[in-house]
Amino acid sequence: MFWPKPSLRDRHRPPLVIKALTPRLSSISSEMAAPHSIEPEYDLVFAGGGTAACVTASRLAKAFPNLSILVLESGPTTEGKKEHIQPGQFPVHLPPTSKTMTVTTSKPSKHVADREIEIRGGHCVGGGSSVNWMYYNRPSKSDFDDWVTQYGNEGWSSKELIPLLEKAETYECAPQPADSWLRRPVESLFLEVGPKVDKYRPLGTEGNDFTANSLNKYCNMPKWVSSNGRRSDVPHHYVYGKGLSNLHVKDGCLVNRVIVEDGVATGVEYLFDKRIYEGAPQDKHVVKARKLVVLGAGAMGNPLILERSGIGRKDILERAGIPLVCELPGVGANYQDHSVWVTPYIVDDSCESMNKLWRGDADTWAKAGEQWEKDGSGILGTSSLEIAIKLRPLDHEVADLGPEFQPVWDEFYANKPDKPLIWVCLMVGLPADQSAMPPLNFIITANSLNYPVSRGHQHIASADPYDKPDFQCGFISHPADLAAHRWGYKKSHEVTRRMACFRGALGPAHPAYPSGSAAAAQIAETGPAPIDAPDVTYSAADDEAIDACIRNSISTTFHSLGTCAMKPREKGGVVDNKLNVYGIKNLKVADVSIPPQNVHSNTYSLAVVIGEKAAVIIAEELGGSL
Prior knowledge:
Number of strands: 20
CATH class of the largest domain: Alpha Beta
Strand content: 15-25%
Shape: globular
Radius of gyration: 24 Å
Mean pLDDT: 90
Structural class: alpha/beta
Low-confidence stretches: 1-34, 177-182
Distance between the termini: 29 Å
CATH architecture of the largest domain: 2-Layer Sandwich
CATH topology of the largest domain: Glucose Oxidase, domain 3
């Protein structure tokens, strides 16, 4: 079924460059309806309407039709909006002024060349599922099993969670050899060259079977995109149009704090978000929860709500002038992400890419729009993330990562063969502002670290919900993470520079090697190296140049997690294995803020399985089942 068609002019209006998209997004928000009428009391109240919250709330609403459920989401609704439906439009959510993503700025750190790194997260109904890049990636079995064996979370093993993840999935095609899925020459070249350059890493089928079989294979990876070219987000599949009259999702409602009376959560205090409802009165309102309050505002939002509620580390609350309700030092600690180093390359014009679309070329947009309206195909029907490899060092390669990495390998990786170190993907386009760049054909490789050792934090700086938080992402603060990114770049670069379409590295985004080094010579190449060319030899000075480039370029995959960790209270935990906040009754946290330890997947699939598990737990406590 196709969505209603707007006027031809609106349908194919190009976004120009990303900077120019900002007014378009602002006009979307200004057309929203007036603030909602909300009843004074519901059975369940969700503070935050992200991916996991929408899954949990919808499952419970269907299973318990007499249960009244309220979801308060601070961002806008997404229902029927093409910027949330057409996969190729995902860059429209990236500008700093976006109303569909929050931007949280990390404090400067010497580890990232004193930069302030911007971390984005979903700020709309469905959270990240409505704005992400739609790459589908499952965790490994050991990722879940670690939560049980290392942190004592009974009920959260792979045996119990994998069926819940499969419950949410619909595969519209069976896994096939990667070379049978190819759509564009550049992808074919990457998959053709990879196994030739690295004889230990062959062509695979699909890297998502939860085991070590998914690792060290060049694969065409699935996406959260349906066969008719629609984003597979949670709201359009769990919430909208499902006839759940007892489920009430209210957008533009910013939860300030949880109301706690005598150690029991009885409701939440909220206000209409002025970033969504401009000019809305900033009076605070209270809605009561007869049975349960569930926090679903994500790894960035949940610790702030808890701390404004008086739940957290005593000194942080005192500085903000908030009375202590429950001392829980783990709130806001343990911040984790998948740090990523993106390196762009120039390719020849034989490679079909997303660049003209993302530059706003009017003719490209018109043709792409017509094609998508016809059958959902074409460049608007894909995110352009098609292929990847999950890299894990082989035994003879571990030493290449250096002495900083060896202890981490021995302790964390060596006995868990299903854990990849680096995820490398190829994107056929550059999803960034290209207005100051020559109109060349770009691709990027992204090297994402799956299990960073580095940690950060997310805390309030004041009691004002609009204030900038005290946030530190912690990227590259542990030397093992730097070593891993250095190794991943070298591996992916050897493949990319041998592709027949290769026309050079986009110099400013790559290391500035010392003059005269072998690495400096190859980075200046403007054509492909032979398949049998020797790998680049790097000197110690070259490695220093790579490290400097990493510190100046490292960024985020938007995979924030861990700030309300599910582990014992005495070890910094915030919730138990039933998702209950320690020390407070009738209060749970249920989203990607609860993992005590990272997983190698993108956080969309993780959020879905946490949402499904939370629904099972709450249903059992309500005396029913799903």
